[in-house]
Write a structure and sequence with these properties.
Layout (H helix, E strand, L loop, with lengths): L1 E2 L10 H16 L7 E4 L16 E5 L5 H12 L3 E5 L3 E6 L6
Parallel strand pairs: 1-2
Antiparallel strand pairs: 2-3, 3-5, 4-5
Helix pairs in contact: 1-2
Length: 101
């Protein structure tokens, strides 16, 4: 896994670390390991209520191939407490439990 220069990981939630491990395997399975780069965690400019600011979201470099399949595999592997979506120029991964623990 590569973390883009300048990305701040202080305060990232352990659930996101686990999700990154899962997504790394999915990228690798699809031949996209080289594209597996964390491009944003808690730094940067995001929407006002973004989960990035609480360490519950990360952005990944968009795969060069099979992006839709990688998203589908991520959703299936991570379950309902995670969202995996393609945004304009990156893949957004967030931990957002749908039911209270």
């Amino acid at each position: 896994m590569e973390i883009k220069a300048g990305v701040r990981v202080l305060g990232v939630r352990p659930e996101i670390v686990l999700a990154l491990m899962v997504m790394r395997e999915i990228y690798t399975t699809h031949g996209q390991f080289a594209a597996f780069v964390v491009t944003s965690v808690v730094e940067g400019v995001h929407k006002r209520a973004s989960l990035h600011y609480t360490g519950c979201a990360v952005d990944l470099r968009l795969p060069t191939a099979d992006a839709a399949q990688i998203v589908a595999s991520g959703k299936a592997a991570l379950g309902d407490d995670f969202d995996v979506v393609i945004e304009a120029d990156h893949l957004h991964l967030e931990f957002q439990p749908k039911t209270p623990y």
